[in-house]
Amino acid sequence: MSVGYVDDLVYAPPASLNRAHTHYCPGCGHGVAQRLVAEVIDELGLAGQTVGVAPVGCSVFLYNYFELDFVVAPHGRAPAMATGLKRVLPERIIFTYQGDGDLASIGLAEIMHAAVRGEKITVVFLNNAVYGMTGGQMAPTSLPGQKTTSSPYGRDPALTGAPLRMAELLAQVDGAAYVARRSLHNPREILRAKKAIRRAFETQRAGLGLAVVELLSNCPTNWGCTPAESLNWIERHMLPYFPLGDFKVTPEVAALP
């Protein structure tokens, strides 16, 4: 009995990503997040009208990895630059791609006031509970007791305060139309993350207000563990403090097809 083989295409890289080698550490979640963003842009047919904004941080070289128009913003200022781009080019789809040190620390005022103004942009926010590019220092999202290069004995909330829950914070602002938190620690949650990213871009396309998707991601290098261990760390330590879900869905967003 002969066995025939059919060459079925199971997966093809998104057209909005190029084939460049990235600078990310092995096991980092940035590659997964960027693939999801590129897939959504392709599936919605937005590539020809999309402009990305990358701030200083692990995302600073995004212009090398995406086949899209891109600009680089100063550290934390991506929402401010995205605001200018969207107001000058309202027909374009503008998104920022930011880490937690960038968005929740030096850029906290920018993201909050973008939400206050209801800027019609999309924000993809990776939360790995640490400053990644600059050496693994404590970030505003570092967990209580978490050891970092600037908190070698563990974060002490009595000294540094409690971690910021950005999705919950932004959801309280009237100008935010869609705010969600998802995770990248297993295939099921990755699929849910893609759906949230898609809804965030659809929110902007419909002109409904600020859309933010927070993604819990891993940083094996700065956490001092293997990639597999880092995924387990998200589930054991980050999920209890940063619960997943939709934190703001306006009726207009809910009514989108």
Number of domains: 1
| Total count of helical runs of at least 4 residues | 11
Helix percent reads 25-40%
Strand fraction band?
15-25%
Instruction: Let me know the number of strands.
Output: 7
Classified by CATH, the class is Alpha Beta
Mean pLDDT: 95
Concise structural overview:
The protein has eleven helices and seven strands. With 257 residues, the protein is of the alpha/beta class. Strands 2-1-3-4-6-5-7 form a seven-stranded mixed β-sheet, sandwiched between helices.
Could you characterize what this model shows?
The chain is of the alpha/beta class. 38% of the residues lie in helices and 16% in strands. The chain has 11 helices and 7 strands. A 7-stranded mixed sheet has the order 2-1-3-4-6-5-7, with helices on both faces. Helix 1 (30-43) crosses helix 8 (187-205) and helix 4 packs across helix 5. The longest helix is centred in the C-terminal third of the chain and has 19 residues, at 187-205. The mean pLDDT is 95.
